[in-house]
Every structure is written in structure tokens, then in C-alpha cells.
Amino acid sequence: MNKIIKGILIAILIIAIIQVIHLVVFHNPGQDYTEFYMVDHNNDTLDYPINVTQNSVKKLVIGITNQEHQETNYTIKVLKDNQIITKFNETLKDKETMEIPYYMTSTNEKGTNQTLNFELYKNNVSSPYRTLYLRYNVI
Predict the structure, then answer these.
(1) What's the chain look like in SS3?
(2) Count of CB atoms within 10 A of residue 63's CB?
(3) Could you give the C-alpha distances from 18 to 14, 15, 26, 74, in angstroms and in order?
(4) C-alpha to C-alpha distance for 130 and 31, rounded to whole angstroms
(5) Can you tell me the distance from the alpha carbon of 121 to that of 115, in angstroms, rounded to the nearest whole number?
(6) pLDDT tens column, 21-42
(7) What percent of the chain clears pLDDT 90, i.e. is strictly above it?
(8) Which of 137, 136, 131, 122 is nearest to 62 (CA)?
(9) pLDDT tens by residue, 54-69
């Protein structure tokens, strides 16, 4: 009877060791994604330039964090009225973060509900992966 119990325990131990090795070697690292965000000049979300004076310059910070589990090429396009204002190209390693200062200079024309679009493209795909919008008024 003791030999049967010892055999069962040894079999359970071997199965447990194989499962641990499988989890360590072949584990699923999780979902691949990219963080794309925008913060204000204080690296916060409390003071976005919503009401700006005509012809003024306001600073924003555009951030990207690569969680793709591989090196990835990114392109950021900043658009106003469907016209590209600025374009950035960056390559980030896995888990790498880059914050790019962007100086908002599209404040020439007075008006309300103006919009800047920040589009993130990855690995030369033609459609945006992520899009951020900033609505503002020029007074």
C-alpha cells in the first residue's frame, strides 16, 4: 500500500514539475499593445491648453510606451483640419517609453472647438493604431 501511495505522489510531483517548466518556458506574456497618451506641460492631465490666446505657443507632451514584446517602429502624425502639421518617427524597444515635447503653434485663427488630432501608426501600417484629440478655443 505504501508503494502505491509513494508512486502516486512521485507521479504528481513529476507532473507538477513538468507544468512549472512549461509555464516558465512557454508562458503567455500577455496581450501586445502600445500605450499612447498626452499630458500637459506639467506632465499631468489637469492643465491642457483649452483656452489659448491667439498666436501663443503651448507645450504638450506626447507619450508612447511599447508593450508589444518586440522592437516596434512608430509614426506620430499631428493633424489640424486633416492637414499634417508635424510628423515624428521613433523606434522603441520592448517596455521602452518615449515622451516627445510638442509645441502647439496652431493658434493663428480665433475660434471655438478647434481640434488637433494625434495619430499613432505602428510598423508602417496605413491606418492609425490609436488616435488622441485635443479640442481648444483660440481667444
Answers:
(1) CHHHHHHHHHHHHHHHHHHHHHHHHHCCCCCCEEEEEEEECCCCCCCCCCEECCCCCEEEEEEEEEECCCCEEEEEEEEECCEEEEEEEEEECCCCEEEEEEEECCCCCCEEEEEEEEEEEECCCCCCCEEEEEEEEEC
(2) 14
(3) 6, 5, 11, 39
(4) 16
(5) 19
(6) 877 777 666 788 999 999 988 8
(7) 60
(8) 131
(9) 999 999 999 999 999 8
Q: Which residue has the cell 512549472?
A: 20
For residue 99, pLDDT beyond 80: yes
d(CA 99, CA 60): 10
Q: What residues form DSSP beta bridges with 114?
A: 136
Q: Is residue 36 classed exposed, middle or buried when 0-12, 13-18 and 19+ CB atoms within 10 A define those classes?
A: buried
